[in-house]
């Protein structure tokens, strides 16, 4: 259990007995967990495999040859998703941080900023992402704006950025408002300006607090990057799977795409968990 | 197993607690009799708070035995929640629940842990608030009270379920000097009523008034113990003398 007897301490007999009891309890818990997991998965698996339609489902969704065939195209599409996600994430952080700062600025002079920020958040949080992608993805290029790209990829990313920024701005705002007023006062007392206090005192603390929530949104963004497939011209993993499926109406490419998305999001989710735990640990170490 | 007439409420023997390589308690022996008030003194970091948290099972000891009401509570088979429900712990920073009213804070454990009916919990809570002089604040939020009032609410919250033992961790350290008195007065009253208490404090004058036994913690052990007259006024150990002269300076 520990080996840090810096002062030459040897556990007493009663302590050794306690530790061995705790170890037995841990072993027992692990055994129960393993047995119940096996049981649940076994029952569910048996139900699926013995169902009358299993043969057809197996052939249509889990065809190994079809999976191998479609894998290169779907994987290439997934790389497009990764790029969409990375570029959008950077833009989302910039836009949402701006909106959050606008919404938390005080004083009557900043009223238009607050109003603008609030309207933005209300509108883009209210609109379904799919609708934004349809509207901007087809409407954006049709505007024929000079200097603006007309690619569906650009306008699809823009839709993701607009929609996600509204959510992420609220996360940032919650973080900014969670920093106690006394921190701002202490910053201003040192002679920092409002902006400097925000930049050097409030935002660094807010950022740390909301990072787990932000990473949750990032996982979500990874998946939602697939929605751009509806525009038809961006060959991401989902669109690639759609094309592969259309050849012979075997749906295995969709399963391949789903599998690849999970492979992408699971490490991100574990990273988020790890980070949240780390943050929680630090918070618990505080005075309260 | 548990003999309620026994005169010893809490007994620690050879209690050890280390955080990584930092050995905070290296073998604490301590006995608390029924109705006794034990005051722990010692430098910052000498393990006073850790000792209280170990007694409350908020920390798991690395070795040694703590007996509460005749039961070895350091046994891992013991249900810590049940043990804690019979002890009261008051924190330095009050730790009141900001989303509940004062009365809600005081009655929470009665309602949710002891299973007392809401009406009875309320009347007991109000009686306890009256006891600490805050009956008129029952519906207020903790944030609307002064530090001294908040700490009295925290004491009421810990006391309302009639614990066998009250543990008080630096309960006046976060208070303004003029608010310290009201809390110390309340503790003196409790002592007069025969409440068994273990507390740590830097208020030597108060320790002298209220303590039956003073324990000086140093190097992870109880370095010197005795009546206030022995330990505070005529310390035998060099370390105790050095500590007392430092805080008096």
Describe the structure.
- The complex is a heterodimer of chains A (288) and B (249).
- With 288 residues, chain A is mainly alpha-helical.
- Chain A has helices spanning 13-49, 54-61, 64-104, 111-126, 129-143, 152-178, 181-189, 194-224, 237-248, 252-284.
- In chain A, helix 3 crosses helix 6 (152-178), helix 4 (111-126) packs across helix 6 and helix 7 (181-189) packs across helix 8 (194-224).
- Chain A is flat, with a radius of gyration of 26 Å.
- The two termini of chain A are 28 Å apart.
- Residues 281-288 of chain A have low confidence and may be disordered.
- In chain B, 37% of the residues lie in helices and 25% in strands.
- Chain B is built from 9 helices and 10 strands.
- Chain B has helices at 48-55, 80-84, 102-112, 118-131, 147-159, 177-192, 204-210, 228-233, 238-248; strands at 8-19, 22-33, 37-41, 63-68, 71-72, 87-90, 165-169, 197-200, 213-218, 221-226.
- In chain B, a hairpin with a 2-residue loop joins strand 1 and strand 2.
- The longest helix of chain B has 16 residues, at 177-192.
- Chain B is globular and about 55 Å long.
- The relative contact order of chain B is 0.17.
- Chains A and B meet through helix 1 of A and strand 1 and strand 4 of B.
